[in-house]
Amino acid sequence: MPHEPGPEPEPADARAARRQQFADAARAERPDLALLCLLIGAEADPALDEAGLDAAQIELDRLAGLLPFSPTRRPTTAPAGSAARCPSDSGPGAWARNLAELLGTRCGFGGSPGDYRRLESSLLHEVLRRRRGLPILLSVVWMEVARRAGAPVYGVALPGHFVVGFGDPAGAHVLADPFGGGRLLSEEDAGLLVAGATGEPLSERMMTPADPLEIVLRVLNNIRAWAQARPEHSAVQLWALELSLLLPSHPARLRHERAQLLVQRGEFLAGAAELEEYARVVEAVEPAGATAIRRQAAAARAMLN
């Protein structure tokens, strides 16, 4: 029976070493997206050791080896639904089509509404095993396989639904939806995804290629949201917060959220200390907010009396 991901007791030094590896990878000149996502998986499933990390990277290499190398430009008509600005199924369109045929059709990677209810859907090693996941993790698979094969690929962090782009973001490109098996998206399709998630129209800013660390933070945000809706999994929410705080750039409010979570978990002294530290950080710009946070810290300490 496969191991179910979830927090398990492990030596503190092993956890510290893994988090240092995550922090170092996040601060690398060219962050390794696959490695960072796999280290998130190792936080959820400590049984995922170095051999398991290597096996996942090898699987991505294997899948990349199944793709035709450097699709050539062909003067064929674009299929229905191909993205705007790429008038023919050539170059970017060929890469998108080949990825969809390999990963979506032959390998069965895709998603469904039920995948949103599973933590495994946010863990790269589990997505590679189950071939199911959230849009952003499936997009990571598409991007990492395509990148290894030499494709001009990038992530597109549409609100509520991550997709991938092939080609030149400012020129000829196509969009594909890995959650839908790699179906090609027109800009109208992308606009409908955005409108369904936010009620807002699609903008050029939304089409900007996503930075690897932005993708990692969004993965961790999804895990936090999953755990926040399930109080019995507060330990998952805590480690997702702690990994987020190891990223070079992160919202300051995450420190406040971590402090509050520590208090909720009964770690009153640690939570109070974190609240007081956060109050010092925000005092210069929000003096009234800092005062309110100090009151929270005092209330947390009072829980010990």
Describe this structure as you would to a colleague.
There is one protein chain. This protein has 305 residues and is mainly alpha-helical. The protein is 54% helix and 6% strand. It has 12 helices and 4 strands; from the N terminus they run ααααααββββαααααα. Strands 1-2-3-4 form a 4-stranded antiparallel sheet. A hairpin with a 5-residue loop joins β2 (163-167) and β3 (173-177). The protein is globular, with a radius of gyration of 21 Å. α1 runs antiparallel to α2 (33-44), α10 packs antiparallel against α11 and α11 (268-282) packs antiparallel against α12. Residues 73-89 have low confidence and may be disordered. Belongs to the UPF0162 family. This is Transglutaminase-like domain-containing protein. It holds the Pfam family TPR_9.
Outline the low-pLDDT stretches.
Answer: 73-89
For the residues shown, what is the average pLDDT?
A: 89
Could you state the order of secondary-structure elements as H and E? HHHHHHEEEEHHHHHH
Gyration radius, rounded: 21 Å
The chain-level structural class is mainly alpha
Give a short account of the largest sheet. 4 strands, antiparallel
InterPro entries: SirB1_N
Protein name: Transglutaminase-like domain-containing protein
Pfam families: TPR_9 (PF13371), Transglut_core2 (PF13369)
Organism: Streptomyces caniferus
